[in-house]
Each structure stands twice: as C-alpha cells, then as structure tokens.
Design a protein that fits this description.
This protein has 114 residues and is mainly beta. The chain has one helix spanning 25-30, and strands at 4-6, 9-12, 17-22, 32-38, 45-50, 56-58, 66-71, 76-81, 90-97, 108-113. Helix content is 5%, strand content 48%. The termini are far apart.
Length: 114
C-alpha cells in the first residue's frame, strides 16, 4: 500500500511548511513511521522517525528545526519544518520504519528559495 505525502510547496528560506501522511489503521498501529527525502542528484535519506509510543529521532541536518509527530486517532504522521534552508529542497516521502519498497508514494516536493 502506497503512502501519500502532502503539504509541500515553494517557500522562502526561513519559512515553514507542514507535511502530512495518512496511513491505514493497520499499518499505523503496528509500525514506527519515518519521513525521508531525496534531493536532486542525491540518495534518499531518513530525516526523522517516530515510534508507536512517540519517541523520535532526527538527522543531524534537521534536528532543532523539524518536528515529527503522529496522530494515532487519524492514522496520520506529520513533519513540521521550520527555519527552512535551500538545502532542504527535496522530494519528501513517508514510509514505515524499516521502510518497505511497495509503500513509496510519489512524495511531495519542497522547494526552498534563497
């Protein structure tokens, strides 16, 4: 089942965006969730993850600026991105932890202008 991320867009450096990703109840209830991103010419990387109980981890590049959260009632995971930088420009995806190839959706494009 593909997971569809939404909420991307064009924003100036220093701005903010909030990404959302809805999953099925079954997936959401049994799995940790993660936000990944892939910048042009680079490999896809994990930027933040959250366990079922709400424990979080962040990549060094986004720690202190991004916040991952989950709403178990809505089966939705969020990524609040503040103080955005041009280097945050990428397609952002959500997936399980560990990721499953069949769950990759189209992602949502985040473009940060300088």
């Amino acid at each position: 089942v593909q997971l569809q991320a939404s909420g991307g867009g064009l924003v100036q450096a220093g701005g903010f965006l909030r990404l959302s990703c809805a999953a099925s109840k079954i997936i959401f209830s049994i799995s940790a969730m993660g936000w990944y991103r892939q910048a042009p010419g680079k490999q896809r990387e994990l930027v933040a993850d959250i366990t079922r109980s709400g424990s979080t981890n962040y990549a060094d590049s986004v720690r202190g600026r991004f916040t991952i959260s989950r709403d178990n009632a809505k089966n939705t995971v969020y990524l609040q991105m503040n103080s955005l930088k041009p280097e945050d420009t990428a397609v952002y995806y959500c997936n399980l932890i560990p990721r499953i190839n069949s769950a990759w959706g189209q992602g949502t494009l985040v473009t940060v202008s300088s």
